[in-house]
């Protein structure tokens, strides 16, 4: 430590406040709903090593604490006062950007002719070109389909906008004016940061300011390790699935071995499926990236909320992410919907840590973030592209507490958009925006409820995009006897003769008068539902979160005349089978794993990774097709299907592949 503790605490609070003020500047001057309402942005202060020493706690995306600006800074060469670097390239920025709509700006802050810090800001841009409006589609199979790739370049040189870069950017967007409005808001935020850094140096001196950067990282690392030492040493294994890759019906597996040794953590993703020919890949570059470490960050900040929020929190976390896997793809893999896989990584970490700390970690959250977008035709050539709502679900129940209904900050702090604002910005009428009944997983402590958003389309020529749809097949798991949450549903014209149900969609054309309904998954429950206080079940029924039928069938609570019938409840609960302590992933996953067991999938992936990258996707699809031949189309949702023969087929396919690729 180079500063005394009092000075360090004061300086830490001041730089954190500066980062938050940068965010407020951005939000108040932003142009689009993504910025003004959804708050899909962030700002921070980075040290000379390019990592963040100050990050906001209460505004913007909460999880990007571990990003590294240095590769983008190094790519542009020498920087001068007034320069600002722009990039959105996940590969050339080495994971600073993780999909193309995220625009990142970096400004060097100078004092007496030398750089003393960097300001950083990002926003989710409404459109950067590409194949579809809003630029993101789950079925894109390479990054070239996803929009304009901007390697690290100088957007501003010596305080003057680079007109060539601006022209190129405008020419490759469906919403250029709105995008440039948000970029100017980022420049204003960076200017706020510059002024605050100048003020801190004037007050404390440049030596203290520079020393404080390193000290804050060391202090955070020390506090984080104290928390991680509370996790028992051991190796904890967990796996989970994405429903499919949006191109085929094949589930995508993620696997984790979490090793804890004296407050150090290694996250080994060996066994995770190869990168997919779709947009779910997470460009981590094999580093302790924000998208792979968020749950560790959340654990540390939950158990020690006094720890400063900066990169030092992850100093004692190491990553093993096989190159060419879903969590470390190789160029030119598409990455637009990388948040879907990142959310499942969060569930992996949550599940593995739950094995070590069962009374600390919750059951699975709803497991999705779906920016529901409407692109409507206008009188001008360019469409009006707006996010209606960033649809999420609830948080998982934990020992001693129900999950939070309709709110999940697992990977971000995205806010919902006010209905009045949405209806003013885009031609829809919101019919229902509410918590979804009977969606939270039952348990002694109930999982958080999902959301129900239903709206009517008012114009012609509109399209709906719903990137990140998940948990339609494999439900959010319950913990220690808790039930899984209800699956997601996406329905067009519900309750009519023309009702259509969808899985993952690319572009959904809709007509005037069509009704679109998205019902997000509920979160997992914790503990045996038969042990839930009947009074709490009654309260849930009165609030519309649990139906009277579910109260009786699942919780064993009998209601009569608006009250609990204690005698009948006791009788009914005595007949309910006891729930074991294992995680309940739902019958769909249980059926799937009768064929695709964990050990067989480990062997399959080990063999696939010995193939050249270009052959892995086709081989994986061919093997699954042969194994699943003649199973019902609804598998694994169909009950009572024979699986022994199909498991034997899988074994034979793996042995044949192993024979061909034996090292």
Automatic annotation (TrEMBL):
<feature type="domain" description="Hydantoinase B/oxoprolinase">
    <location>
        <begin position="4"/>
        <end position="529"/>
    </location>
</feature>
<dbReference type="InterPro" id="IPR003692">
    <property type="entry name" value="Hydantoinase_B"/>
</dbReference>
<dbReference type="InterPro" id="IPR045079">
    <property type="entry name" value="Oxoprolinase-like"/>
</dbReference>
<dbReference type="GO" id="GO:0005829">
    <property type="term" value="C:cytosol"/>
</dbReference>
<dbReference type="Pfam" id="PF02538">
    <property type="entry name" value="Hydantoinase_B"/>
</dbReference>
<dbReference type="GO" id="GO:0006749">
    <property type="term" value="P:glutathione metabolic process"/>
</dbReference>
<protein>
    <submittedName>
        <fullName>Hydantoinase</fullName>
    </submittedName>
</protein>
<dbReference type="GO" id="GO:0017168">
    <property type="term" value="F:5-oxoprolinase (ATP-hydrolyzing) activity"/>
</dbReference>
């Amino acid at each position: 430590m180079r500063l005394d503790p009092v000075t360090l605490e004061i300086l830490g609070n001041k730089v954190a406040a500066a980062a938050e003020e940068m965010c407020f500047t951005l939000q108040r001057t932003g142009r689009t709903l993504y910025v003004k309402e959804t708050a899909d942005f962030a700002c921070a202060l980075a040290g000379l090593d390019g990592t963040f020493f100050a990050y906001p706690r209460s505004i913007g995306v909460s999880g990007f604490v571990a990003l590294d600006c240095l590769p983008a800074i190094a790519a542009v060469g020498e920087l001068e006062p007034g320069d600002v670097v722009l990039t959105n390239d996940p590969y050339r920025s080495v994971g600073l950007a993780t999909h193309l709509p995220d625009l990142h700006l970096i400004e060097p802050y100078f004092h007496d002719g030398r750089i003393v810090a960097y300001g950083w800001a990002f926003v989710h841009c409404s459109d950067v070109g590409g194949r579809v409006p809003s630029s993101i589609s789950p079925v894109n199979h390479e990054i070239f389909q996803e929009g304009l790739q901007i390697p690290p370049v100088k957007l501003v040189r010596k305080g003057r906008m680079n007109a060539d870069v601006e022209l190129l950017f405008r020419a490759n967007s469906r919403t250029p004016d709105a995008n440039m409005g948000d970029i100017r808001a980022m420049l204003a935020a960076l200017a706020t940061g510059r002024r605050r850094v100048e003020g801190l140096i004037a007050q404390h001196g440049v030596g203290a300011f520079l020393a404080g950067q390193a000290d804050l990282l060391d202090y955070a690392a020390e506090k984080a390790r104290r928390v991680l030492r509370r996790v028992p040493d051991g190796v904890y294994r967990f796996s989970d699935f994405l429903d499919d890759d949006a191109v085929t019906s094949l589930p995508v597996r993620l696997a984790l071995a979490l090793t804890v040794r004296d407050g150090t953590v290694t996250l080994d993703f060996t066994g995770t499926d190869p990168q997919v020919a779709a947009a779910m890949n997470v460009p981590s570059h094999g580093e302790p990236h924000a998208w792979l470490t968020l749950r560790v960050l959340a654990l540390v900040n939950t158990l020690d909320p006094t720890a400063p929020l900066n990169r030092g929190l992850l100093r004692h976390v190491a990553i093993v992410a096989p190159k060419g896997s879903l969590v470390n793809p190789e160029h030119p893999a598409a990455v637009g919907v990388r948040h879907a896989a990142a959310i499942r990584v969060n569930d992996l970490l949550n599940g593995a840590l739950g094995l070590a700390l069962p009374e600390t970690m919750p059951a699975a959250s709803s497991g999705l973030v779906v920016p529901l977008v409407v692109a409507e035709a206008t009188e001008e050539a360019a469409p009006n592209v707006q996010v209606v709502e960033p649809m999420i679900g609830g948080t998982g129940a934990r020992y001693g507490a129900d999950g939070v209904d309709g709110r999940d900050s697992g990977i971000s702090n995205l806010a919902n958009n006010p209905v009045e604002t949405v209806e003013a910005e885009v031609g829809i009428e919101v019919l229902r925006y509410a918590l979804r009944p009977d969606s939270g997983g039952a348990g002694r402590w109930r999982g958080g409820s999902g959301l129900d958003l239903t709206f009517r389309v008012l114009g012609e020529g509109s399209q709906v995009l719903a990137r990140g749809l998940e948990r339609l097949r494999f439900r959010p798991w319950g913990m220690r006897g808790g039930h899984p949450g209800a699956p997601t549903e996406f329905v067009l014209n519900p309750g009519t003769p023309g009702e259509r149900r969808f899985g993952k969609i690319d572009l959904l054309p809709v007509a005037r008068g069509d009704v679109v309904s998205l019902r997000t998954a509920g979160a997992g429950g914790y503990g045996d539902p038969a042990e839930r206080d009947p009074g709490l079940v009654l309260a849930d029924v009165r609030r519309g979160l649990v139906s009277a039928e579910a109260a009786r069938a699942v919780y064993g609570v009998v209601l009569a005349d608006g009250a609990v019938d204690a005698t009948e409840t006791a009788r009914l609960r005595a007949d309910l089978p006891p729930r074991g302590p294992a995680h309940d992933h739902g019958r769909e996953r249980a059926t799937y794993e009768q064929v695709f067991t964990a050990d067989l999938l480990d062997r399959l992936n080990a063999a696939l990774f010995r193939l050249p990258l270009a052959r892995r996707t086709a081989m994986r699809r061919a093997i699954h097709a042969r194994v699943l031949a003649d199973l019902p189309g609804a598998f694994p949702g169909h009950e009572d299907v024979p699986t022994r023969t199909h498991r034997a087929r899988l074994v034979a396919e793996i042995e044949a592949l192993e024979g061909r690729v034996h090292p």
